[in-house]
Amino acid sequence: MGKGSEETSASLIDQAGVTQSLELTPSTESAWIEVIHKMDSVYADLVHYQVELEQKNSALEEAQQFIGSVLSSITDVLIVCDTEGDILQINPALENLTGKSTETFVNSPISEVFSAESAEMVDQFPEKMRQGSLVDCEVSIRCADGSGAPLAMNCTPRYNRDGGLDGIVLIGRPVGELRRAYEELNRTHMELKQTQQQLVHSEKMAALGRLVAGVAHELNNPISFVLGNMFAFRRNGNRLIEYISAVDHHSGDPQTLRKLRQKLKIDHIIKDMYPLIDGTMEGVERVSDIVQDLRRYSGSQKEELVRFELVPVIRKAANWVIKASRIKPEVNYQLLEGLEIKASSGQVHQILVNLVQNAVDAMSDQAQPELTLACEVVADEIKIHVMDRGPGIAQQDLARIFDPFFTSKPVGQGTGLGLYISYGLARDLGGELMVANRTEGGAVFTLSLPAQR
Ligand SMILES: Nc1ncnc2c1ncn2[C@@H]1O[C@H](COP(=O)(O)OP(=O)(O)O)[C@@H](O)[C@H]1O
Ligand SMILES: [Mg+2]
């Protein structure tokens, strides 16, 4: 065999020029040529395979380099495990976070990566993986400095060519920064809410202050007639005492006593006594009612829903505002006397006071200010309309009139919170507050409340 190949190579070398010098029969010659052709084609195949292999190799290197660059540019943590939960591959993001190299982690269990408090949960990942993927579970990575870095972790199963479970892929997004930002946002939000509450409270106090002037007027009337009655009582009392002592001294002289009785107007005093007492009691009751209303109005706590008559509340709200106001509009009432509603009378009162106050403010330049307060029952709602003859509301303001701090009044005169608060109160009562312009000029605010509950 060894000899044969030597001969073959000799004939190969000689093939170009000296074939004829070797005495070959035509049949051996053609056999040789065939062998040579075969070898040529095998050689060409070899060269071809080598080129192909080199190309594949460089493509593989490129792909590896590409995957490596992708892996290192991923800021999320990536961990690839087998079905037992042993680490096969990690990305540089995890190396940076933990300060350990890939080699340290490869083949160790995934719990190595996590803080003690998360390790137990992480150990269950392979088991859970068999039931499906895990989304956004919160775990904590053990950092280089010993602290824990919170991650939002997603785990998905990894399958082999045949569709069998081959392991799990964990992708974790560091949420420490996000959480800090969220906490910061939350704190700012709380502060804002607090400021808003303070402002709402101060608007309430301002409104209360305005009302006190109206209430003072209201109180003035009953108190002054109670005071007048008391003066009358004292005067009458003095006369009665004088008469009684005369009765004691002149017991036997009816003529003198009759004259004195006429002079001191004792009969008149007796006739007047009960009306005076009734009037006084009525006055005191009015004072007590007003004080009670005031107390209810200033109460900040949520009130119970009670059944009450609506019309007196509407009238009272209008009276309180108008009594305290410089402008005295003509008030038209179109009310349904006796109409009852279940709501919080204090809150309904407060909304109406705000609406009437705004209506009065809007008519401050009007020569003949006119206010209409109407109520109606439409389907299952009671609607209360507060209508004025002011300038109405500009189209662009209609959409933002209930926004907090929207005001057209100069600084110090308006806070822009009256309607915002009223809107919230109406909602609290299960109702609604709406605004429109009247075709005849002016604005109409409508408070709708449920008629039945
Ligand atoms: N009846 C009304 N007619 C015209 N404009 C009104 C009326 N009621 C409210 N507005 C407008 O809505 C704004 C907001 O009202 P409000 O929330 O009560 O705050 P404030 O009265 O403190 O300005 C007012 O400044 C005014 O421009
Ligand atoms: Mg207002």
Percentage of β-strand residues: 15-25%
Going by helix content, strand content and strand pairing, the class is alpha+beta
CATH architecture of the largest domain: 2-Layer Sandwich
Total domain units: 3
Can you write the helix and strand succession as a string? HHEEHHHHEEEHHHEHEEHEEHHEE
Provide the CATH superfamily of the largest domain. Histidine kinase-like ATPase, C-terminal domain
Q: Which ions, cofactors or small ligands are bound in this entry?
A: adenosine-5'-diphosphate, magnesium ion
How many whole angstroms does the radius of gyration measure? 50 Å
Distinct helical segment count: 13
Strand line-up in the sheet with most strands: 2-1-5-4-3
Descriptive tags:
453 residues; alpha+beta; Heat Shock Protein 90; 3 domains; 12 strands; elongated; disordered N terminus; binds adenosine-5'-diphosphate; binds magnesium ion
